[in-house]
Amino acid sequence: MSEAVNETTGPMGPVARFIQGWALAGGVVLLLVVLMNAYSVIGSMFGAPFAGDFEMTQMGVAIAAFAFLPYCQITGSHVTADIFTSNASPVWIARFELLASIVAFAFACLLIWRMYAGMLNQKEYDYTTTILLVPHWWAFIPILMSLALWVCASLITLRNAANRTLGR
C-alpha cells in the first residue's frame, strides 16, 4: 500500500482519508446495485420485477467504477506490468512510478474536461433514462467528483514518486 494512504499529518492525510471514504461509498453504491438486481430477479419470479433496474445498474456501476479510481491511484493498485520491473533497481522503479503518476494526472485531467462537456451536453438536450426518466447528467456529478479526486491522488503519488526519484 502506498505511503500516501498512511499519511496522517499535513495536507495529504485528510485527502487520502477522504479518497478512502469515497471508495467505500462507491462500494456501497455497488452493493446497492447488487441488492436491487437480486430484488428484481426474485420479484420477477413473482411477477413484480424492479422497473428500470438495468438503467439504475448502468448508472450505479459507472459511478462505483469511477469512485474506485482515486483509491487505486493512491494505493498503487492500478494494473502494472511487473514482468518489466521485477529486476529493476529502486531508482528505476521510482522513475516508472513518476511517469505513471504523470500519465494518470494527464489522463484524469483529460477525462474531467471531456466528461464535463458530456454532462453539459446531456443536460442541455435533457437526456433521460427510458423507464425511470432519470436525467443522465445526474450520474456525471459523482463521476466528476471521482475524477477530481483522481487528480488529487495522482498529484500525491507524483510528489511521492518525485521524492523517491530524487532520493528524499
TrEMBL record:
Residues 45-161 form the Tripartite ATP-independent periplasmic transporters DctQ component domain. Keywords: Cell inner membrane, Cell membrane, Membrane, Transmembrane, Transmembrane helix, Transport. GO terms for cellular component: plasma membrane. It is found in: Cell inner membrane; Cell membrane. The chain crosses the membrane at residues 21-42, 62-84, 96-116, 136-158. Pfam families: DctQ. Belongs to the TRAP transporter small permease family. This is TRAP transporter small permease protein. It comes from Paramylibacter kogurei.
